[in-house]
């Protein structure tokens, strides 16, 4: 009915996560996760009445390594970037490393400075200092005075249930990210000949994983239409990247050597693409 090329890859219902199959029926109050190209996701949001717009400017608090890499990526996307950093020496380094960014040397806890640097009109506000309390308070202030997209870094995970109730936008936990990288490395090391896990993310409150596999020749998987694969339950082939062409797969599509494939599942411990199949 919506005529958008999207795929629902996860459903949260009453604190339980489902990986939907073709006969799964959505219910009122379900929260869904989708995979789609940027163009098709925009069409989908428009048709369901969700207003979205591409961010054109970002205000980053803290000038550490994470801020540098984030700013570099945003600048490559032609997004205007301002960074507020309190250390003068680090500000000089950032000015040399990121000549296209606006580097401001000052204390980001100074409300006046934040307002002078355009917080009210900022489209994205990212707090990446080393202090959780500062990041949280700054995001709460930004939420009060602006409509910016909020991204808040929190280092300590022991109070994540409390943090989730503060409406801080997208909260990132470096420890979780580090754990994902370690898991990816361990799984890849144990499978040097197969289709290795290239990327791994815990999603949907850690109840599911999104894994990217680099595909090698895999018996009973490669060259077989997806509709004929005997896939495990609670597992979905969500996306195929073939020669930089992104495909939302259908039943007649096949996985080929050289592809990269994204799998979404609630099953823990997948190490190889062949693990998506039920054991015979």
Question: Briefly, what is this?
Answer:
This protein is of the alpha/beta class and 280 residues long. The chain has 7 helices and 14 strands. Helix 5 (132-145) links the parallel strand 7 (124-127) and strand 8.
Q: Can you identify the CATH class of the largest domain?
A: Alpha Beta
The low-confidence parts are none
**CATH-defined fold name of the largest domain:** Rossmann fold
Q: What portion of residues is helical?
A: 25-40%
Secondary-structure content class: alpha/beta
Number of helices: 7
How many discrete structural domains?
A: 3
Q: Can you name the CATH architecture of the largest domain? A: 3-Layer(aba) Sandwich
Strand order of the largest sheet: 6-5-4-7-8-9
Give the helices and strands as they follow along the chain: EEEHEHEHEHEHEHEHEEEEE
The termini sit apart by: 38 Å
Whole-angstrom Rg: 21 Å
In CATH terms, the superfamily of the largest domain is NAD(P)-binding Rossmann-like Domain
Mean pLDDT: 86
Tell me the major beta sheet.
6 strands, parallel
Into which percentage range does the β-strand content fall? 25-35%
